[in-house]
Amino acid sequence: MTTESSSVFDAVRTVLAVRRYGDKPIPKAIARRIVEAGRLTASAANKQPWHFIVIEDRDTLRKLGALSRTGPYIAQAPLAIAVAVEKSPYALSDGSRAIQSMILTAWAEGVGSNWVGFGGMNEIRDLLGIPKDFDVLAIVSVGYPVDRIGRGKKKRKPLTEVAHRERFGQPFS
Asked: Which residue from 109, 111, 159, 171 puts its CA 20 to 30 A from 9's CA?
């Protein structure tokens, strides 16, 4: 296994959702790399149905936190990325893939993040001036974690419970 593939697996293995952020701003180069990871993600038929709105304005972040039922902590994040997608059959999958790429890239940079919401965010679409022919898939809150968090301490089902070989129910070992 190459060092690069090891570091990708390490990010997947250790990434955790972060919901408490410090005041330290995200350096422009890291913010750019996070958004670039979303842009570079593969998409069905290479349609790239996404747009990324990067928000750093404190007032807008507070409004996003107030409008996000599942993510009021966006208000404390130094940065958030709203992911708007075209209304198309593959946009949900493609946008989700882009979000995961951004989350893993942030984590590899020592930056925490979390996926907030899942569609139906018309008030946020209006707040950010996103055209009505797009849906806001989610918002990714981004920041340096306030709490020291253990890398990789996850509660996941064992591989033997979720992976099968050739047919469902045959152990993957």
From this structure: 171
Helical segments of 41-158, H only: 58-67, 91-108, 122-127
- 171 phi/psi in degrees, rounded to 5: -60, 140
Please say whether the beta carbons of 34 and 106 come within 8 A: yes
Q: Where are the alpha helices (DSSP H) in the chain?
A: 3-14, 28-40, 58-67, 91-108, 122-127, 159-162
Residue 51 near residue 103, CB atoms below 8 Å: no
Q: Check residue 119 and give left, alpha or beta (phi > 0: left; psi -120 to 50: alpha).
A: left
**Which amino acid, 112?**
G
Assessment of whether the complete model's pTM goes beyond 0.70: yes
CB 55, CB 75: distance < 8 Å = no
Here the tokens at position 162 are 């979720």
What is the per-residue pLDDT across 16-65, written as a single tens digit (0 to 9) for each? 999 999 999 999 999 999 999 999 999 999 999 999 999 999 999 999 99
